[in-house]
Amino acid sequence: MSLENVTTVLSGDEPGGVPEAEASGGWLWLRAFADNKLAVAGLVVVVVLTLFSFLGPLFYHTDQIHTRIGMETLKPGAGHPLGTDDVGYDQLGRLMVGGQTTLEVAFGAAAVAVIVGVTWGAVAGYLGGFIDALMMRIVDALLAIPALLLLLYLATVFQPNVVMLIVVVGLTAWLVPARLVRGEALTLRTREYVLAAKTMGVRTPTLIGRHIVTNSIGTILVNATFQVADAILVVAALSFLGLGIAPPATNWGAMLSNGLNYTYSGYWWLTYPPGIAIVLTVVAFNLIGDGLRDAFGLDTRRR
Amino acid sequence: MIRFLIRRTAQALVVLVLVTIIVFGLSRLLPGGPARAILGTHATPSNIAAFNRENGLDAPLPAQYWHWLSGVVTGNFGFSYVLNQPVSSLLAQRLPKTAFLAGISVLLAVLIAVPVGLYQAVRRGGLDDYAVTTVTFVLYSTPAFWVALLLIDVLSVRLHVFPAEAPQGGFSAIFSNPGAMVLPVATVTLVSVAAFSRYIRSSVLDELAQDYVRMARSKGNGQRAILLRHVLRNALSPVVTLLGLSLPFIISGTLITEEVFNYPGVGLLAFNAATSQDYPVLLGTVLVVGIATVLGSLLADVGYALLDPRVQLGRAGGSGS
Prior knowledge:
The complex is a heterodimer. Chain A is mainly alpha-helical. Helices cover 71% and strands 0% of the residues of chain A.
């Protein structure tokens, strides 16, 4: 889906350097990250929006299950700070519920993508040779298929719910982390400590887990952050295409696309709050990702 | 060079075969398989069994794949029972339109993104870099369909400058009504510029840190000459590869845009196929776009190899170092 993902593909083949901060040990990257004002601002936005979505409903009680006839599209005002939507749900409360789904799916899909991608890439890069070549050609082939088309197909075959969306979005997004970690593994496998561990008879799965993956943690963390941002946009696009989650569940993308039906009725409170929430969250995750990338001293062109 | 070309082409062939295997696998993912896709959801098990027997779908999977693949190679992508047309002729009607929309938009996006990215890199850390970076960040983070609908809201509903619906009908309709193409093209361009300029900015920043820049500067070259003659040329060659690989991303972008503006390209075809469960059309589109992407990135890599002499020494993609 994302072009930024495409750009990493270009550098994904390059054997990556081990992050400097890590090479000197410790948590230097954390300090470098904390010094980056934009990245910290991004982190604050993410924390605030997460608290708003998950803890907000504890303080601000609204009925988000039963539609209420006669209460549709009320203007923001007393009782409904952000008005009500086209079936009478309180828009502020809806924003919280929608935020929960959005963040759950985004984090879940990113986790699936990173776990599958890291395993695939680490195994391919560490083993090398024919297996590596075959595994990477499979990645190339999947990269050639537009994620949105694939999702369109999968979403018509499987009924979308939160778990299904997490799996489906995650399984279309693991290709980039696979390429990145494979690049890292290609250099790491020739390091003395890896060779030493191998000579001492450490089993291959343990070796990949303990040495290859842990030493690529910078790359993995940076990519995971961008994955969350991308997943939010992908889910929004799917909701717009009518392949989101069925009501009364919702997400910011579904709220935005639903509200856009009423653009010409002047119901701005149906579109701008969820739209701004999406943009804010995606910008925030991108800022965090950029900050982490700089903190780990990674190539600016990779994600 | 020749060896590189041969190896790269062989690689692309392997990827092509894998793409066909993936699409074939996807068609078997449906409960009931292709029979269900063609006969519809109300087909009885005995109908499905009869259909499978007739079409050789009870043969072992490798044999089925071989049968399907020999059809694909001869241009038989299946048949749409919803639209009552062969998938290949549907794609032949729609592909030029999407290619036109994507081509113009990408061209414009590159023309805008290159100077913007270059400017940002030169003014790195300055107020104008922050301003432009903010705009591209926000644009990149805005769902494409919202960008499209905001454009419609302002430019067609409020100001009545451009129509909100793309040209309908045949390919010639585009030229008889060019104004209607403005908003779809603007949407795809805006979404792509955001991503391209970020890439070009970091690409130029990488080049600016290279030794040859210091060398050129110490020889007394002016900033403009260094930028245009040395930096830009080196920073742009990876962009060629970027374009080849960004095809799936651009197709995803055009899909949304085509849906919003009702532009009759492959994206809208695929979307309508998905809503009417017309799986042969959907999978045919996936296959054709997949093949186009593999060929596109092959072409881009070959072009890159011709542009950048360093490729002859090593692998493709070893850019910027």
